[in-house]
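Structure ticket #2291
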Amino acid sequence: MRKISLLLLAVLLLIGSTVKADEGMWIPMLLKKYNIEDMQKAGFKLTAEDIYDINQACLKDAVVGLGREGRPFHHFCTGELVSDQGLMITNHHCGYGAIQSHSTLEHDYLKDGFWAMSREEELANEGITASFLIRMADVTVKVLDGVTDDMKESDRQKLIKKNTKAIIEEAEKDTNYRASVKAYFNGNQYFMAVYEIFKDVRLVGAPPSAIGKFGGDTDNWMWPRHTGDFSMFRIYAGKDNKPASYSKDNVPLKPKQSFKISLKGVNQDDFTMVFGYPGTTTEYLTSYALKMMTEVDNPHKIKIRTKKLDLMRADMDASPMVRIQYSAKYAGVANSWKRWQGEIKGLNRLNAIEKKEALEKKFEEWANSTPELKKKYAGILAKMKAYYNQVTPLSLARDYAMEAGFRGAETVGLAGKFKTLSILRKRIQKRFNLNYTN
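Resolution: structure written out below.
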């Protein structure tokens, strides 16, 4: 199952010392049809329209997807508006790169924290975007228009790309909005999301790392955590309350909706809802994929990143300036390093591979239960097993190339930037009919 950058709703029922959650990818526009009754039975006191409505202000208008210019739909974090003056709260690690970029030896905001005492002291962050969901639509029929079961995969993807481009152009026509079409459930369903994207996001405050990263890598991906994991930003707009590039003349965004913070505290059995932009899920991987992940991919990637972290830490400990400059990079490397370790432990502890094999056996029985099903599905698992046997060594080579090369060695990334300079040079040469001798 593939995530689209929209929504994860988890209903948490606190019962004694245990926590139970309803799983699933709950899509905002489909809550009224599929989920709201169960949510209300569990203690939810609002309506589906209070969460998602395209005609009136609702909770979706207070949820922010943080992205970067050039990749605004690849949300790296979720934020929530908590005032009618564009004030937004997000995780400390989500603001970590911004905090680091403003830190110096004289003003070490990573170590000491930062708080703007006035609007003038708020710090601009070039490249960070804040997206608001305007509306959604199921565009599966349009995306798959003309697609047939007997098409070559390359032809299928070309047609899907063509259809998707037309859908996006139609949605964005005569508006200031941006549209994105993504596949759910590995291409079985497609949804379009239309966003309003703001480009002026300023740092307002963050606690010292001793609070914001309390527990460090040891506590990361663990539960419970005791860190003060938050940072605060403010979204600015033009004087017309529309998206605008950074300017001293911009004013705080006046949002359609913001969350109200209650000081009443929480009680046992309170309903809890998580609304935001989650990461990709891989719930439907086969047992062969899990074996490759736990026995080959993750162990080698962990080994490479352990070495990278050791090298970084040695230089960071030796120089306060290097510590500041590499803090965000170190945290990024360590994040997946810790997650991969947890994946191996969790999958082994839950006997996930054996459970997948049992499900696959049931699938094989179903696939061979009738001539029609047999014709369409029988033998798929055998083909997938053969595929993973072939791809495992290639996957290992890819991981080493990415982790120790393209993504791991900064010199490789720096060299790649010269390609862009070369392309620009050729364009300028052609545009102005220049002839360089060297």
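Closing remark: Residues 156 and 212 are 47 Å apart (CA to CA).
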